[in-house]
Amino acid sequence: MSETIVKKAEPQESERKSNGVDATATGSGNKRGGVPAYYQLYVLLAQQIRDGEYAAEEVLPSENEMTAQYGVSRITVRNALQQLEQDGLVRRRRGARTVVLDRGPKDNPPLFEGPVENLLTRGVASKVNNLEMGWTTPPKDVSESLRLKLGTECFHLSRLRYHGEQPFSITRLFAAPFAMKDLDTNNISDEPLLYQIERTGFLAVAADQLLSAVLAQGDTAKKLNIPIGSALIQLRRTVYGRDNVPFMYHVSLYRPDQYEYNMRLSRETNSTRPQWRHV
């Protein structure tokens, strides 16, 4: 029997705890992406805690209350609470209610924010595992993005990044051969490849990028230590050098519980149709 996390009608105080979970996703017999019900509930509760809907030392609803509220079994609730405890978000004691832990100042969140390259510039530590590296013929869409003749080989690099012991992103990167000509491809460091290219004098001046959401497939889910079908943030970026020549293309997948992408906007009001622009 599968489970579906469904928000039931509740009185007053409980109404502020919104569901935010796709009710078409089910439990162990999942019909959409294979995301277990406990993980859906865990993501929902973790987000509520991180958003401040539950204050430090506030007591969470009981297992029976959550079972009725979300339409899941008690074992599902217990598994979700166990994951929250492992993440350091709650404190559990046998025979006592689950309590939200103090996560420290709000201006020092645990999530990564912004481009990974900028995080490393600020000294945010991360461990790197190179999954693949070498010369390869890229997919058609990559060749087109880099304006290369089909069949032209690019330098390919796939990396898994960690914060502490927790994986948070996978990146697949392709660099045009003319951008790699002054680099020893047998001696690539753990730094972002763009840094290493720029040190040879080939500078980036602009980039096009697209943010979207995707579901984690089998191999990606395994490497990021999440269930298959979990939501991921996808960032696709094409990097340009002088004369608007593209030389690097990469796709990064981020765990949304470990990473968020913030940007500052300015309001353009000089025209008859005001609009927001990236700073």
Question: What would your notes on this structure say?
Answer:
- With 279 residues, the protein is α+β, with helices and mostly antiparallel strands.
- The protein has two domains: 12-100, Arc Repressor Mutant, subunit A (Orthogonal Bundle), CATH 1.10.10.10; 112-265, Chorismate lyase.
- 23% of the residues lie in helices and 27% in strands.
- It has helices at 37-50, 63-70, 74-86, 116-121, 140-145, 177-180, 193-198, 218-224; strands at 90-91, 99-100, 112-113, 127-136, 154-163, 166-175, 206-215, 231-240, 246-254, 259-260, 265-268, 275-278.
- The protein has a six-stranded antiparallel β-sheet.
- Strand 11 and strand 12 form a beta hairpin.
- Helix 1 crosses helix 3 (74-86) and helix 2 crosses helix 3 (74-86).
- The radius of gyration is 22 Å and the shape is elongated.
- The model is unreliable at 6-33 and 106-110 (pLDDT under 50).
